[in-house]
Structures are given as C-alpha cells and as structure tokens.
Amino acid sequence: MGTGRLSSAALAAALGMGAAVQGATPYGFTVHVTLSPRAAARLAATRTPLEVVAYYDGDPAPGQDRHADDTTGQIEMGTEHVRLPASGNAVVTGSAVKAERLKWVKPGTLAMYVNVNTVTMAGIPLTCLPLPAGTMKAVAGRTFNVTCKISGE
Fold first, then answer.
1. Confidence (pTM)
2. Residue 112: which domain range?
3. Is the residue at 92 inside a domain?
4. Distance (Å, rounded) from C-alpha 22 to C-alpha 4?
5. Which residue from 23, 70, 77, 81 has the fewest beta carbons nearer than 10 Å?
6. Which tens digit of pLDDT belongs to each residue from 88-127?
7. Which of 120, 119, 112, 118 lies closest to 144, judged by CA?
8. Distances (CA, A) of 144 to 45, 68, 83, 129
9. Is position 144 within any domain?
10. Residue 2 domain-assigned?
C-alpha cells in the first residue's frame, strides 16, 4: 500500500478513458524502431542496445504552479526507459506515471514525448525521426514508427 500509483482501471476512470491495451495503463503506447542498414550494422558490431525513453508531464492545474518544474513550467509525471537490443517494438506501459501527481495537472494536458538513443557511450550518433509527442488522449494505445540512422547518413 501507499505506492502512490493507481490501478489501470482507476487511472482510466480518472482520465475518463479506457485502458489503451489490455493489462496496460491508460498511458501505454508502442514505439516501433527501424534502423537503417548502416545503423544496424554499426550497433550490431559494437553490441550497442537502443533505449526508448518516454517522458510524461502536464500543465499545472489552477493553484498548482508551486509543483511545476522551474525550467519547463510543467508538472513532471515520470520517465519510463525501455531497452531494445536492435530494431523492434518498445512497449511503453505508462507504469512510470506518478498517479499521486494527477491532481496537480490541468485536465486534458497530460502528455508524453519520446527520445530514442544508444545506451552506452559507444560514440554512435543517431538521428531518430519522427519522435512521437502529444497528449495522452491523442497517443494512448497507438503505435509510432521511428526510423534511426547514423547522423549525417
């Protein structure tokens, strides 16, 4: 008890939406990563995995500005990391969303943005596009296709 996290059903009810994927939170989505042949070869040669990172935040509800990040002005709601050995599907569950902070977020503004990068300091500069972002109502349950190339390729 006291984890500060709500069940999937409770989260869905709080947001007025159904769970995106069976067994997932209403904040779940999938990122399908495809590597260019050159990027795939370079990552395989160095055994460098990929990491899909989902950041969750939202606009402060009235009177909740004191909880907002000083730099962004947003309520930080959590970060989820999903590792991939190579190209494939990164299933982001949304389990990192801090449910206890939902009361601080203006309804309808809970959002996510994603970054894809290499896990190690292998010095492999990747450019991955398009990087998904948007409100949870727009992105929950969807699959986003991201293509990664060696920068400058």
1. 0.82
2. 8-150
3. yes
4. 22
5. 70
6. 999 999 999 999 999 999 999 999 999 999 887 667 889 9
7. 112
8. 27, 28, 16, 10
9. yes
10. no
Report which residue type is found at 151.
S
pLDDT per position as a tens digit, 77-88 = 999 999 998 899
Q: DSSP letter for 100, please.
A: G
Whole-angstrom distance, CA of residue 68 vs CA of residue 64: 7
Q: What is the pLDDT of residues 6-57, one digit of tens each?
A: 343 333 333 333 333 334 688 999 999 999 999 999 999 998 999 999 999 9
Mean pLDDT of the chain: 85
By the 8 A CB rule, do 14 and 94 touch? no
Contact 153, 36 (CB under 8 A): yes
What's the domain count of the chain?
1
Q: Which of helix, strand or coil describes residue 128?
A: strand
